[in-house]
Amino acid sequence: MRIIGGQFKGRKFYPPADKWPTRPTTDFAKEGLFNILQNRIDFESTTVLDLFGGTGSHGYEFISRGCLDVTYVDKFGPAVNFVKKTSKELEIEEHFTVFRTDVFRFIKMSPKKYDYIFAGPPYGLPTIDTIPDEVFKHELLKPEGLFVMEHNPNHEYPNHPHFTEARNYGKTIFSFFK
Asked: Is position 114 within any domain?
């Protein structure tokens, strides 16, 4: 895993992978997504929510590009511990809020709204198709915000009322919602 751009560009991390239920976004797909976001987001003024945060790669990328407010949510203890350790090593703990909890529980209880939400759920999650509905039902996204969900070709959302586009990077697809 490496950081693609910003002040930590090129920095590599090696999360322990033994029996982890995470699936880090490939560098190819992440680079494609951040090339798109670079033209749509002012990183320095964006509040970010990273659901199913895994290794924390998405959040590190935002902070590396100047973001000062990332909220990370994952329920897998070793991943949460890795993210806490990595954010300390990068000296970004003050900008990186970590929650170890179920994502759906967090969505229901979060009082905060975000400019950008990323969800990278396990592809085999039985409730994966409910995630866009839950994000909008609980009004987590600010009115002009952007929600991006990573998924595989087994899922598609063109009929969702908030769907705007999808970008395909091999077997990784990013669906955009506003």
From this structure: yes
In a domain, 141, yes or no: yes
Task: Give the model's pLDDT for residue 25.
Answer: 79
DSSP states of the chain:
-B--SSTTTT-B-----TT----PPPHHHHHHHHHHHHTT--GGG-EEEEET-TTSHHHHHHHHTT--EEEEEE--HHHHHHHHHHHHHTT-GGGEEEEES-HHHHHHH----EEEEEE---TT-TTGGGHHHHHHHTT-EEEEEEEEEEE-TT---TTSTTEEEEEEETTEEEEEE-
Q: Which amino acid is at 134?
A: E
Residue 167's region, left for phi above 0, alpha for psi from -120 to 50, else beta, is: beta
Q: Would residue 154 count as lying in a domain? A: yes
Q: How many domains does the chain have?
A: 1
Q: What is the mean pLDDT of the chain?
A: 94
Q: Which domain holds residue 66?
A: 46-177
pLDDT-based confidence at residue 14 (cuts at 50, 70, 90): confident
Q: Is residue 40 part of a domain?
A: no
> Is residue 127 within 8 Å of residue 103, measured between CB atoms?
no
